[in-house]
Amino acid sequence: MAEPLNISLIGGGTVGGGVAQILLQHPERIATRAGRPVHIKRVVVRDPHKPRPTIPKELVSTDIAAAIRDPQVHVVVELMGGTGLAKQVVLDSLAAGKHVVTANKALLAEHGPEIFEAARKHERSVGFEASVAGGIPIIRALAESLAGNQITAIQGILNGTSNFILTAMADRGVSYSDALAEAQRLGYAEADPTLDVDGSDAAHKLAILVQIAFGVTVPVNEIERFGIAGLNAMDLRFAHELGYTIKLLAEAWLDGKEVALHVAPVLLRRTDMLAQVRGAFNAVQVVGDAVGEIMFQGAGAGALPTASSVVADIIDLAVGRAQRTFQAMKLWAPHELGFRQRPSEGVRSRFFLRVLVQDKSGMLADVARVLADQGISIASVIQHEAVEEHQGDVVPLVIMTHYAETGRFRSAVSKINSLTGVVPPGVFYSVDD
Amino acid sequence: MAEPLNISLIGGGTVGGGVAQILLQHPERIATRAGRPVHIKRVVVRDPHKPRPTIPKELVSTDIAAAIRDPQVHVVVELMGGTGLAKQVVLDSLAAGKHVVTANKALLAEHGPEIFEAARKHERSVGFEASVAGGIPIIRALAESLAGNQITAIQGILNGTSNFILTAMADRGVSYSDALAEAQRLGYAEADPTLDVDGSDAAHKLAILVQIAFGVTVPVNEIERFGIAGLNAMDLRFAHELGYTIKLLAEAWLDGKEVALHVAPVLLRRTDMLAQVRGAFNAVQVVGDAVGEIMFQGAGAGALPTASSVVADIIDLAVGRAQRTFQAMKLWAPHELGFRQRPSEGVRSRFFLRVLVQDKSGMLADVARVLADQGISIASVIQHEAVEEHQGDVVPLVIMTHYAETGRFRSAVSKINSLTGVVPPGVFYSVDD
């Protein structure tokens, strides 16, 4: 059998522990599939005294520089997270002639151009299957399995925390805050869930997918995002009544030479495959011009699922595939596809609009008039009689529109918000058909 | 840019036409992703006078030997189908030093050992992503993306024709023969649908998946298979009443050192992701010891989806990945994993049993007694009052069992079939929970 492949693990937390577990508990399996043994030479951690059940003590140190410099090491696996020290570790590793494997979505979304340029300069590769959708091999799918296709659309449930919360709200009618508390109790949400529920985490992942599928570099802070924080259970009920459910989707699609993209809660028909994705699972649906619709679903987080993708990248390096793929992909490099980002105002969509209005005659007429003045036509309306839960004389009015330009729809909503008898703000979501 | 990769296409039918369409309509896209141009040098067909809109006339000939021998050709793409001449084409191509890409599941399921031994001997690779589940990259998923895992279970909807029929029956309550006629009218079923509806097509694909996931070579005629031909709409209704639907599944799972496998109609809970797979789609759910449950869904047939997978294999060869993967995989080679096939009699499962019995007292007691005598316990029972549609005095009796050994359950059914008052045969299906 060939020479072993030696790796340094930087980071001994959840995912690092999972990677160590797979590599150390199943060395024959890994060696068979990699065509050579894979050895963990060093594990660098912040606190060497913390107990780590899957990592042998003699591998552990705090010396990052030594782990990168070690001439026996071929691959540095960056699992520390963050975009400061992690970036330096990745750049130093490439400069030292090591291949890099990382699960760090924020790092790639924010510093992809610099990192991939360094990799090309030093003729080393960067594996990042684990950076998007945990155990789901969506990077390989886009870069290799679907390489004969032009991808025309991507829709992803890329944040398990948000999907857990939305599933609990839809299934059991609980409020957003109760569902969040439950997610925190079960370990699906962090004490500060902001980046999960405000769409930022999904936006990082979407930036990476868009780079691979369309060759477009989108600064992550330019991705429009709407989260699920404070989503009203009433809107899930209305969506249900109309045959839809609400999912937090990261979406990008091609229209001519432009790529539209956003992260937002979106109404999906309940028969849609993505609508069936429950709990903390992730899923990505891709449309390719040859393959048609194709969907991938699996665990988007967790020690072993994420480690499964990290280990796949390590095996690809051992086999020698990763180096060739990386050369062929030209990621975050100037590109001839010529696609560019479409401003969100110009995106056409159907919309769900819910406004609270005073329970008096003429309100529907007033709201409908504003929409009509913007050239937006109405597909369906729900207005129930007032019930106890709506305090005072206020009732919800729900409107589903036909296709309309986002810019026009948003100006209509701001006019509706200022109508007499409307309690602002109106809440609205895109609708995917 | 590097030297072009030249290919001979053997077969200019549906899939061959799709491959030609992708390669000839998008040469820059393919060259960018392959790192070099991909040229179709020759297309070999049976009838050179048949119009083929996507294939230029000057490429077409009937000369297989020349297409294989051509010293400029690097890859022979076998898309003729069948296991006679196709086998010779593949073996001759390997002997002539060409790589092979094929979509031919029957060929690999029946002659895998011989073909892969020849490939190793001649140091050439065989790509076969398109042989299972059309456009779904399940071969790459098992061989590369999930290489860090031991796969513990596979469940696939691998025959689109059967799934189309079952979906029509479940959604609209039509009979098997009406659903089949509809599938034929829409082009989802062939004039002779036998191999699709009797489970043989799915069994071929399962043999390939089992080889990759477990390293077990199972002669395809030893895979127990039950098809959907003649499935009674009444059983779908009863399944629905119990919270299940019926899908034709190709399943394999690990139990200790043994692999159990079969193709059969199976009851799935309606909330199960595979239960949601509708129409002619294919889907594969895989369980890995690290990744957990992961599912892939997409088009399992059709010119362009299948061609998408063929082209992915061609690009993998152009990039140089396929050669390395193939060396690492050691397919259909003697293997150290040591798994072996478990005889179906020993497989434990829950069962759905429906028997027609005379509408008289004591029938349930008699049937329940036979099951109890075999140590099989009953989870639930449906027995409705007789309605018009049941002629004479015969009513259906439906029983869901707890887990039982298949052998014991089958002997119980044969005893039940001979009970006085039972109209044989009792119909039974496995139940997946």
Key phrases:
homodimer, 433 residues, alpha/beta, Rossmann fold, Alpha-Beta Plaits, eleven-stranded mixed beta sheet, 15 helices, 17 strands, 37% helix
Topology:
The structure is a homodimer of 433-residue chains.
Chain A lengths: L4 E6 L3 H12 L1 H8 L3 E7 L15 E2 L2 H6 L5 E4 L6 H11 L3 E4 L2 H17 L4 E2 L10 H8 L5 E7 L2 H13 L3 H10 L8 H4 L2 H15 L18 H9 L2 E12 L2 E12 L11 E8 L3 E8 L3 H17 L1 H9 L10 E2 L6 E11 L4 H11 L4 E6 L10 E8 L2 E2 H12 L4 E11 L1
Parallel strand pairs in A: 1-2, 1-4, 2-3, 4-5, 5-6, 9-12, 9-17
Antiparallel strand pairs in A: 7-8, 7-10, 8-9, 10-11, 13-15, 13-16, 13-17, 14-15
Helix pairs in contact in A: 1-12, 4-5, 5-10, 7-8, 14-15
Describe the structure.
The structure is a homodimer of 433-residue chains. Chain A is α/β, with parallel strands linked by helices and 433 residues long. In chain A, the strands form 2 sheets. In chain A, strands 7, 8, 9, 10, 11, 12, 13, 14, 15, 16 and 17 form an 11-stranded mixed sheet that branches. The model of chain A has no long low-confidence stretch (mean pLDDT 94). Chain A starts with a strand and ends with a strand. Chain A contains 15 helices and 17 strands. The first copy, chain A, folds into 3 domains: 5-134 and 305-329, NAD(P)-binding Rossmann-like Domain (Rossmann fold); 146-299, Dihydrodipicolinate Reductase, domain 2 (2-Layer Sandwich), CATH 3.30.360; 348-432, ACT domain (Alpha-Beta Plaits, 2-Layer Sandwich), CATH 3.30.70.260. The longest helix of chain A is centred in the N-terminal third of the chain and has 17 residues, at 105-121. Chains A and B meet through helix 2, helix 6, strand 11, helix 12 and helix 13 of A and helix 2, helix 6, strand 11, helix 12 and helix 13 of B.
